[in-house]
Structure formats: C-alpha cells, structure tokens
Amino acid sequence: MRIFLDANVLVSVLNKEYPLFTYSSRILSLASHPNFEVYTSPLCLAIAFYFAEKKHGSVLAKQKMDLLCQHIKIAENSSKGVSDTLSNKKIHDFEDGLEYYAAYQKDCKCIITEDIEDFYFSNIEVLNCQEFFKQYLR
C-alpha cells in the first residue's frame, strides 16, 4: 500500500510532539515494511524542516531530515501537479493541492494528515494518524 505523509505528520516525528508522536512514528516506521511504500513531497519536507530547525537548530534539523529521507520515498511536485492544482476549481489552498497531486501521481491509496478537512476535494482516502493506525495497523 502506498501512503502519503503530510507535513504535520513529519513535524510530529521530527519534533517528538506528543501525543501524536505515538502514532506518527509507528506509521513512519512502515517505510521498512514490505507491504507499504511511504511517500512525502519536497514541499512537505521543506515545511517539516522549517519547524525542526526552529526547535533544534540548523545542524540537528538537517541531520534529522537526512535520516528521514533515507527511509521514505519522495513524490515530485511536478509542473503537471501545479497545472492540475490551478485548474481544479474545488481546490482553494494551493499547498494542499500540490501535496494532493504529488500523492495522486504516485498512486498513493491514502493521505495521512492531522488536517483532514484540508483535503475535502480528495479522491484519495484521507485519514489522521490515529484513524490510519486503527484501520490498517491494529
């Protein structure tokens, strides 16, 4: 199963934000499971780095990002994704549209985010960490 992690899930892992870390870290660990492919986008990584850098400083934030990127796959933010976001009248938040189309182009079956309502336009299943955990990892 291909899953896409939104920036807020990455931030919770990088910054050990409880209680979400309990679920988000276990979901991220699926990157080493043969039945899962875990994706995020360069945009999500940039957002996650921003918050990790604020909490841990540049050097440690880069180390954390390097470790993270060794384990997950990166879906592109492509020119087609930009065009699709701009032309989709349902999408009001450009960033969410870019993330959605990055996940869509990699055929992800689920977007995991703590801001489910941001993806109201999605044709991909959207779950928060706890819901994903209950539905797929019991």
Automatic annotation (TrEMBL):
Origin: domain of life: Bacteria
Signal peptide region: none
Descriptive protein name: Twitching motility protein PilT
Location of the PIN domain: 2-116
